[in-house]
C-alpha cells in the first residue's frame, strides 16, 4: 500500500505543476522519476519514450503510466494516471460548469507558466542529449530530425522521422556492442497482455455498433472518446481537430469548443483532458467522467498489452540498434518542439527571456526541483509584469 500511495502522491504533484505540454511533461518526468527517485535508469526511460511514441494516445501520459506500472504493476499505473491527470480533469470540469465566466488565457500567471516551460524543456534537452547523443552519428541524427521537424510539424511526419531514426540506428550500430539497460520490471505476465490487447480490439470494433443501436448519450460519449483515444497519434494538439470533427455541431457549439481549448492550455497535465471539458458541457459531471475514462482507456489496454513483451523485444540486437537511432531522433523532436511551440508561444519580450534564464539557472546550476521552480517562476513573472 505504501508504494501505491507514493506513486499517487508523486504523480499528483507532477499533475499540479507540469505545465507546457507533452515535451515539458517528459522533462518533468525525467527530473522526478529518473534523476531524483531513480525508479529507472536513463536508458530504460528513453526506451519507454520510444515505445510510447509508436502507440496511439497521449505519449507523455503513457510514459507516466508505464513508470507507474514498472513501479507498482497495473494498480501502480492507475495510481500514476489518477495523480497526473486529476488536477486538469477537475479544473476543466469546473471550467465547463462555469464556462461563461471571464477567460484567463491572458493572465500574467498563465504567461509565467509558459515561460517556465522554456527552461524546463531546455534543461531536459541538455540532460537527455548528454545521454542519448554522445557521439557524432547520433548527434547528426538528432540535428537532422530537428531540421526536418522544424519544416514539417505533423504527427505523421514525426512518426516518419522516428522510423528514419530507427533505420539509421540499425545501419550505424548493427555490429556495435550495445548495452541492454535495466529490465523493465512488471508484475503482470504476457498472458495478461494478450487478454488486454483482445479487449482493446473488441471494444474498438463493437462499441460503435452498440452506440448506433443505443439512445444513451453516455454510450455515445464513450464511443466517440474511445475511438479518438485509440487512433490519434502524436497526442496534444493533434487530438483537437479529430475531436472538433466528432463533437462540434453534433454535441456542442464551436464557441464552446474553442473556449474549452483555451482553458485546456492554461491548466497542467495532458491535453487529452480536454475530453473532460467536452463531456461535462454535454452531460454534466457524469459526462465529463465518462469522457475522461473513455479517452484514456485505450492507452491502459495498449500498455498492459505491449509492456510484457518489451523486455524480450529490446534485447534483440537489431532492436537495440534501432532504439539508439530512435532515441537520438527523439532528442531532435525535443529540439524542434523547443522552438515551436514552446519558445514561440512563451518568449515575446525581454522580461520573458530574463525570467526564463532565472528558471533555467535554478534547474541546472542550483539543482532545484522542477515543481519548486514552477512556483517561483510564476511568482517572479507576476511581480515583474506588475513592475515592467
Structure description:
It holds the Pfam family Chromate_transp. Belongs to the chromate ion transporter (CHR) (TC 2.A.51) family. The chain crosses the membrane at residues 7-28, 74-97, 109-129, 141-173, 193-212, 224-243, 289-309, 321-339, 369-387. It is a single chain. By secondary structure, the chain is an all-alpha fold. It has one domain. It has 15 helices and no strands. It has helices at 2-17, 22-36, 42-53, 59-97, 108-132, 136-151, 155-173, 190-213, 217-231, 239-247, 254-264, 274-314, 317-346, 350-364, 370-387. The longest helix has 41 residues, at 274-314. It is globular, with a radius of gyration of 20 Å. The chain starts with a helix and ends with a helix. The mean pLDDT is 85.
Could you list the spans in which at least 5 consecutive residues all have pLDDT below 50? none
Determine the fraction of residues in helical runs and give it as a percent range. over 70%
The number of helices is 15
Number of strands: 0
Give the overall average pLDDT. 85
Which word captures the global form?
globular
Described by strand count, sense and barrel closure, the largest sheet is: none
Order of helices and strands: HHHHHHHHHHHHHHH
Give the termini separation: 50 Å
Portion in beta strands: under 5%
Provide the number of structural domains: 1
What class do helices, strands and sheet pairing give? mainly alpha
The Cα radius of gyration reads: 20 Å
